[in-house]
Amino acid sequence: MWKAAKLKSGAQVSLYGGRPTWSVSDVYAWAQTSGTATAWLEDKAPGGTYRKVADGGILSATSGEYVRACVSDGTETACTTPDT
Fold first, then answer.
1. Which of 4, 11, 51, 62 is the most buried (most CB within 10 A)?
2. For the residues of 6-59, what is the DSSP string, one character each?
3. Element (H or E) spanning 54, and its range?
4. Torsion-angle region of residue 76: left (phi > 0), alpha (psi -120 to 50) or beta?
5. CA pair distance 15, 40, nearest whole angstrom
6. With contact defined as beta carbons under 8 Å apart, do 81 and 15 qualify?
7. Superkingdom, according to UniProt (predicted)?
8. Would you say 12 and 71 are in contact if contact means Cβ atoms under 8 Å apart?
9. pTM for this entry
């Protein structure tokens, strides 16, 4: 696991990733959530804003430098933070 974010309700999202042995250079990231909370991945776009790149109906390739996982229970949202 790379990072985790947790809601006050206890729901949590974990950000995972790595480079499969069959991949020369591509690194893959995925999110796993606990309970019934909704999770998705975002990537930092030029200019500093984040945009969804993976959820139930979206899957986009990114540079992958600033990927974060987010979780929401409908009233609260939390996202993983990058190392600084």
1. 11
2. E-TTS-EEEEEEE--TT-SS--EEEEEE-TT-EEEEEEEPTTS-EEEEEETTEE
3. strand 50-55
4. beta
5. 10
6. no
7. Bacteria
8. yes
9. 0.80
Q: How many CB atoms lie within 10 A of CB 44?
A: 16
Amino acid at 42: E
What is d(CA 9, CA 67) in angstroms, rounded to the nearest whole number? 24
Q: What is the pLDDT of residues 6-18, one digit of tens each?
A: 999 999 999 888 8
Radius of gyration of the chain (CA): 13
40-52 pLDDT, tens per residue?
998 888 888 888 8
* Amino acid making up residue 59: L
Tokens 């929401």 correspond to what residue? 72
CA gap 21, 45 in Å, rounded: 28
